[in-house]
Amino acid sequence: MLLVLYVVFLLGLSNCQLVPTATPTKRTIRVGIAAAQLTQSGSVGWSSCGGAVPIAVQYLQSKGHLTEFDFEYIMEYTECDKASTVKAGLRFMKDLNVDVVIGPPCAKALEVMGTLSVIYKKLVLGWGFVSESQLADSTRFPFVTSVQPTATT
Questions:
Q1: Percent above pLDDT 70 for the chain
Q2: d(CA 124, CA 24)
Q3: Over 50: is that where the pLDDT of 8 sits?
Q4: Which residues does the UniProt record annotate as the domain Receptor ligand binding region (predicted)?
Q5: 46 near 35, Cβ under 8 Å?
Q6: Which of 61, 80, 142, 145 has an alpha carbon 20 to 30 Å from 124's alpha carbon atom?
Q7: Environment class of residue 6 by beta-carbon count within 10 Å: exposed (0-12), middle (13-18) or buried (19+)?
Q8: What is the pLDDT of residues 42-85, one digit of tens each?
Q9: Residue 152 belongs to some domain of the structure
């Protein structure tokens, strides 16, 4: 008798359509951070201002923005050195395929990162003291923006 009920139950399931309930997966935004620790440590040193990045994301998420995204931060200290910036930029853009790079906080190093951004088509956010007018040249640096306006803009 129990076997008959079990077979009836299975046959009843075959006539049903089971609709899977999909839980939406969050997309992870990978953020490369080219930081300085010793260079201008009182103003743009990462230990002084780096915590603002995850705090800003948490604030936006608490207000209902960016809730469908998770964030992963990858840090490299470049100290505004051009060679270190190239190394970090290649690691971020080529090896790790980040979505966006923050920094470096110095103009000459940011130019190097901006050049790599053209090759790999990655967004770069300049922060710190990067107000040189050449960084506003959108034909040369179409993927670079800065939190500080340049003399041209």
A1: 73
A2: 28
A3: no
A4: 49-152
A5: yes
A6: 61
A7: exposed
A8: 656 666 677 888 999 999 999 999 999 999 999 999 988 999 99
A9: no
